[in-house]
Design brief:
alpha+beta, 266 residues, globular, 19% helix, C8orf32 fold, 6 helices, single chain, five-stranded antiparallel beta sheet, Immunoglobulin-like, 2 domains
């Protein structure tokens, strides 16, 4: 499998800003090779960011820039599939806890009533199909501060809302679950994608209730408790306006996704 991904961002900084980007593909562990370029540029001048490794191979790029326009371009080719995500015993505690956007404690009763008696693979498939049936995918329908509870009340959202609701319901059923931001070949409309990753039967598997892209060709960017840990841009000190964004993700052969199968992100 060969996947090519890219993103072009045009930003306007309202003042001197401390910027942290999470747009680079996660560092492969084994089984895949990554070739990439990443540039931050203004009027012919480039910025040299500090690269900071986050959890699970996620890579953050941080630097400070003064007010004005900023162009960001990332391009990568990933050949092969990475080995399955390692299992850290601490993750199995961290990703059971309620978090800002995945309020599993508030949805405890709902999860227990709707998914009583389901475990393992059946629970993952049950949650995915239930969320997919109860929500409508409506671009622009949710606010950046909406969590799983708000999403369930509104019955609509975008990929991160679907993922947050899946994560909260699974945690409420004692299944560790986390959010993964990803490049998604086959996604339409093309954008960054967000999916749930859940731990059952000794491994992490992708849960994507939107069913908008094959899980087999996803490219991991960042992994965390919820969107607070995986945003493609975090800024401090000054406002930043996103003027334009173009994301691309293609694969040499788009796989067919069997929605009844367990799929690990590789």
């Amino acid at each position: 499998m060969k996947r090519n991904v890219s993103v072009q961002l045009e930003l306007q900084l309202g003042g001197r800003a401390n910027l942290v980007f999470a747009i680079a593909a996660a560092r492969p562990r084994a089984g895949a090779t990554l070739t990439e370029t990443l540039t931050f540029e203004r009027a012919g001048t480039t910025f040299d960011p500090i690269e900071r490794d986050d959890l699970h191979g996620s890579r953050l790029h941080q630097f400070v820039a003064d007010a004005g326009p900023l162009s960001v371009h990332y391009e990568a080719e990933i050949v092969g599939r990475d080995e399955p995500a390692p299992v850290d015993p601490l993750d199995l505690v961290t990703y059971l806890r309620p978090s800002r956007y995945a309020e599993s404690d508030a949805l405890y009763a709902t999860a227990r009533a709707e998914f009583a008696g389901l475990t393992g693979r059946d629970l993952l498939l049950g949650v995915s199909s239930w969320v997919g049936a109860h929500l409508r995918y409506v671009p622009g329908s949710s606010q950046p501060t909406d969590g799983a509870t708000e999403t369930l009340l509104d019955r609509q959202g975008v990929c991160r809302d679907y993922a947050h609701l899946c994560i909260a319901l699974l945690r409420a059923r004692d299944v560790p679950a986390r959010l993964v931001s990803a490049y998604a070949p086959g996604l339409y409309p093309m954008d960054f994608h967000a999916v749930c990753e859940a731990y059952v039967d000794g491994a992490w598997y992708v849960v994507d209730a939107t069913a908008l892209a094959p899980r087999q060709s996803l490219v991991r960017i960042a992994t965390g408790r919820d969107a607070a840990d995986t945003a493609f841009l975090t800024n401090y000190w000054a406002n930043v306006t996103l003027r334009a964004m173009t994301v691309t993700a293609v694969v040499d052969e788009l796989p067919t996704d069997d929605l009844g199968a367990l799929v690990a992100l590789g």
